[in-house]
Amino acid sequence: MDVEVQIPEGLLNKIVNAGIKMYPKEYGGFLIGFYSEDFKILHITETILPSEYRNSKYSFERSAKGIKGELKRLYSLNPKQYYVGEWHTHPDNSTQFSMTDLNAMIEITEYKTVGISNPTLMILSINKSGLNDFEFYVYNDKKLLRYE
Ligand SMILES: [Zn+2]
């Protein structure tokens, strides 16, 4: 994919810290942001943490409960930003997505509350004290493609 993702260091730290708190279970949330006018750069501006979720060492499932209100609040602060995708951690594991992750993204594109056709998936490989690595994928036509 010919798209660059930019995430401010402070926001990345916020996401990593939220993930480490849940170690050794997976954890995740919603990604908020916007694309540049030429669609070449995706700017991640904020994360929303889910109000309800289920997680284990190898799974994370969030509910979209309350997300509409949160999105409205962020939109009122900056009308450019909207829901662009999801993030979750892989504790002591790689940034490679699983079949479950792919299926979850397929469901998201079919889900009306926060559905978009090309959501981004950010996977963070973490350990108990920090970040190992992170990777961005974009969903298109039942596939997850790695951002360059
Ligand atoms: Zn995963």
Question: How are strands sequenced across the largest beta sheet?
Answer: 1-3-2-6-7-8-9
Number of helices: 3
The CATH topology name reads Cytidine Deaminase, domain 2
How many structural domains can be distinguished in the coordinates? 1
CATH architecture verdict: 3-Layer(aba) Sandwich
Fold topology:
Layout lengths: L3 E3 L2 H13 L6 E8 L5 E8 L4 E3 L4 E3 L4 H11 L4 E10 L7 H12 L9 E7 L4 E10 L2 E4 L2
Parallel strand pairs: 1-3, 6-7
Antiparallel strand pairs: 2-3, 2-6, 4-5, 7-8, 8-9
Bound molecules: zinc ion.
The site of zinc ion has 6 residues, from strand 6.
General description of the model:
The chain is built from 3 helices and 9 strands. By secondary structure, the protein is of the alpha+beta class. The protein has one domain: Cytidine Deaminase, domain 2. The strands form 2 sheets. The chain has a 7-stranded mixed beta sheet with strand order 1-3-2-6-7-8-9, sandwiched between helices. Helix 3 links the parallel strand 6 and strand 7. The chain is globular, with a radius of gyration of 14 Å. The mean pLDDT is 93. It binds zinc ion (ZN). The site of zinc ion has 6 residues, from strand 6.
